[in-house]
What we know:
Blueprint: E1 2-4, E2 10-12, H1 27-78, H2 92-97, H3 119-122, E3 132-135, E4 155-159, E5 162-166, E6 180-185, E7 187-189, E8 203-205, E9 210-211, E10 216-217, E11 226-231, E12 236-240, H4 241-244, H5 249-253
Amino acid sequence: MRARTANGREGSSPGVSASGSRAGFTLMELLVVIAIIAMLAAMVLPALASARRKAYVAGCVSNLRELGVALNIYVEEQGFYPLASDGDGLGSWQRALRPLDSEAGLYCPQPKAPSAMFVSLFHPAGSTINPHYGYNALGAVWNGLPQLTLGLGGDFVRDGLNGWFQQVPERRVTAPSQMIAFADSGAFLDVPSSGLNQPSNALYITFPFLVVYAGQPGVGSWHSGGANALFCDGHAAFAQQSYWTNATSAVRSLWNNDHQPHPEYW
């Protein structure tokens, strides 16, 4: 478009080149576009991060439910809960349930690896382990030793200087829908000298207490500060780490096979 100047001569309109095409973006326009993109990213990225976290939680719950199916099939066929350890310090429960569930189903899909709970005793300083599910082997027991285990991991039967583990019968779990069987956990035991110290052979456990020297409890917190737990009847539930480790009778009862709190062992 041509425009006449005050003296009657034709000239180019502002912002239009002599050929009739518009000039490039000004610096101000570029800054405005960048600001808009930044605002959109600020709105979208948290939503994407939240969706990713929810996907990990959903995948974790799915794994636990599959693990619950395997556990219930095992208990129905055997009449007992799998041992936590068969005497060599390794994960007997994983060996028992692995044929009924996939290897991946024993581990939480959350990619962030928490610090190893027992790193100072069993692994080189600074090593980490992948998020996994721990077995409620001992119940809510930190001090003392019950004659019969309050968890699911088995009773130790002494025979002089020796002994063996005896499986917990199904009937001892008085309220399956109110007893934790597995939970997200950073706690595990390993025996490197056995020659079988593979990740799948470690004894993964969970418990509602704080390991003082490690500064961590036996329940995970990588799901936005919380953990998923699987109950003996096969249903899963989510709660904050602080809830699962709460020193109240109601919560501690969830860890014991007789559904009693047993504060004498806290």
